[in-house]
Amino acid sequence: QVQLVESGGGLVQPGGSLRLSCAASGSIISVNVMGWYRQAPGKGRELVARINSVGGTKYVDAVKGRFTISRDNAKNTVYLQMNSLKPEDTAVYHCSYMDVAGNNYWGQGTQVTVSS
Q1: Is the dihedral of CA 52, 70, 68, 91 positive or negative?
Q2: pLDDT for 11-63, tens place per residue?
Q3: What is the DSSP letter of 64?
Q4: How is the beta sheet containing 2-7 ordered, strand by strand?
Q5: Cα distance between residue 87 and residue 2, in whole Å
Q6: Which of 38, 44, 63, 64 has CA 20 to 30 A from 19's CA?
Q7: CA 18, CA 55: separation in Å to the nearest integer?
């Protein structure tokens, strides 16, 4: 089992910034992909960004140039720096973990609300 604990969500005005963190613990396999997905009200869950254990990244087009994903392998933690936030970024953001053994775990989610 792998446990994921997210933090850093909240309410921010348009144009503002937030930094999400996700700390993993438990039976972690070093070769893995961690990422952030989001789900807005009435919509499906979508990938925001993901990063593999050697630093390769992928972003959804809507956040390119505004969001940056990074990780600290020593701390088993992944971060999502979100800048120039827009109202359409409002969603519950979930951390994910997937490893080479096919294990897939999700965090409980953290709310991000962008509103004036």
Answers
A1: positive
A2: 999 999 999 999 999 998 888 999 999 999 999 999 999 999 999 999 999 99
A3: T
A4: 2-7, 18-26, 77-82, 67-72
A5: 32
A6: 44
A7: 21
CA distance 44 to 102: 23
Residue among 92, 102, 116, 114 at smallest CA distance from 36: 92
DSSP string, 30-53: SSEEEEEEEE-TTS-EEEEEEEET
Q: How many CB atoms lie within 10 A of CB 104?
A: 12
Chain segment 52-93, per-residue pLDDT in tens: 999 999 999 999 999 999 999 999 999 999 999 999 999 999
